[in-house]
Amino acid sequence: MNGGWTYILTNRPNGVLYTGVTADLVPRVYQHRSGEVSGFTSRYGIGRLVWFEWHQEIVSAIAREKSIKNWARADKVRLIRASNWEWVDLYPGLL
């Protein structure tokens, strides 16, 4: 089984947060950014990648996503700020 990514997107620093999981990070984030994904992310203009993490097994990535989704917002913000204090969009660095 292949690995996967757990990631957090936002619409602006300290804005609305979205936590997701994917096997292929670059095209998935592109889908969010371009509005190809209808629903929550397109409704709130969410496309700024502010945190991501690789897992050797996709089941681990899914478990991490579910765990983070149950965290308080303050805990998610701490996770982001631990590696991305200024909420810089990390997507361009992946290309």
Structure description:
The protein contains 4 helices and 3 strands; from the N terminus they run ββααβαα. It is globular, with a radius of gyration of 12 Å. The mean pLDDT is 95. The protein is an alpha+beta fold and 95 residues long. Strands 2-1-3 form a 3-stranded antiparallel sheet, sandwiched between helices.
Kindly list the characteristics that best describe this protein.
single chain; alpha+beta; 4 helices
Please list the strands of the largest sheet in the order they lie side by side: 2-1-3
Report helical residue fraction.
40-55%
The first-level CATH class is given as Alpha Beta
Number of domains: 1
Topology, pairings included?
Layout: E1 4-10, E2 17-22, H1 25-34, H2 40-44, E3 48-55, H3 58-69, H4 73-83
Antiparallel strand pairs: 1-2, 1-3
What does this entry show, briefly?
The chain is α+β, with helices and mostly antiparallel strands and 95 residues long.
